[in-house]
Amino acid sequence: MIIAIDGPTASGKGTIAKALAGHFALPHLDTGLLYRAVGRQVQLVGGNPDDAHVALAACEFPDSLLDDEILRSEEVGGYASRVSVHPPVRRALYERQRAFALQEGGAVLDGRDIGTVIAPEAQVKLFVTASTAERARRRWLEMTGRGIAADLAVIEADIAARDERDMKRADAPLMAAPGAVVLDTTTLGRDEAIAAAIKEVETYRA
Ligand code: C5P
Q: 108 in helix, strand or coil?
C-alpha cells in the first residue's frame, strides 16, 4: 500500500505521515528533506537558489547532509522552496522518490507532489492543510519551545510567501491530487488528526 500525503508547511502532514508509517509498519520518506538538502547545499557554496544551474549542481549533495539538524531551520526551508521551482531539480530528485514509493510492501511519502507526480497510483491520498494563522502559531510554538526567538507576524508572512511560491510554480505545484481526501487540521489536536488519518487508511483497507 502506498500512502501519499501532501500539504503546505506546518499543516501536520509530517506528524501524520510518521504516525501512519508507525501504525501500518511502513517505511516513511519526508521528501521535503531532499529539497532542503539541495537548498542547504546551495547555501553552503554561497550560490543563488534562483539560478537553475546552481540548484541542479546542488542535487549532488552528500547523503550525510540529510542528517544535519540545520535542514529543519526556517532559512533552509526558504532555500528549499526556491530551488524546488526549477524543473531540472525536480527531475533530479524524482527517481529516488519514485523508487522509495515502489518498494515492496509499500511506503508512506509526504511532500507537495506525491499524489500528483511521484505516486499518482497511491491507494491512499491525503491532502493535509490548516489555516495560515494556525500553521504560523504552531511554527512559533515549536521555535520558541526550542529556545529560538521568533516573531509570529514574520513567521506568518514567511509561510504565506512559501505557500504562494509552492502553489504558483509551473512544475508540480502544491495542490490536492484528484481523489485525495482533504484533512483540515486547523481545529484538531495532534492525536485527533492522527486518528482521522488512520481512519481514512482503514476505510481504504476495509
Ligand atoms: O515540507 P518541507 O517544508 O520540508 O519542504 C520544504 C520545501 O521543499 C517546500 O516549501 C517545497 O517548496 C519543497 N518541496 C517540494 N516538493 C516536495 C517536498 C518539498 O517542492 N515533494
A: strand
Cα separation of 83 and 124, whole Å? 28
Q: Is 111 in the pocket of ligand 1 (CB under 6 A)?
A: yes
Termini Cα distance of the chain: 13
Nine cell digits for residue 6: 501532501
pLDDT given for residue 195 in this prediction? 98
Atom 14 of ligand 1, nearest CA residue: 32
> Over the stretch 73-124, which tens digit does the pLDDT of each residue have?
889 999 999 999 999 999 999 999 999 999 999 999 999 999 999 999 999 9
Reported as a pLDDT band with limits 50, 70 and 90, residue 204 is: confident
* DSSP code of residue 153: H
Is the CB of 166 inside a 6 Å radius of any atom of ligand 1?
yes
Number of Cα atoms under 13 Å in the Cβ half of residue 105: 6
pLDDT digits (tens, 9 = 90+) for 34-68: 999 999 999 999 999 999 999 999 999 999 999 99
Contacts (Cβ under 8 Å, ≥6 apart) of 187? none
pTM of the complete model beyond 0.85: yes
Euclidean distance between CA atoms 40 and 75, whole angstroms: 9
Residue type, 153: A
Q: Quick check: CB of 79 below 6 Å from ligand 1?
A: no
**110 in contact with ligand 1, CB cutoff 6 A:** no
183 DSSP β-pair partners? 128
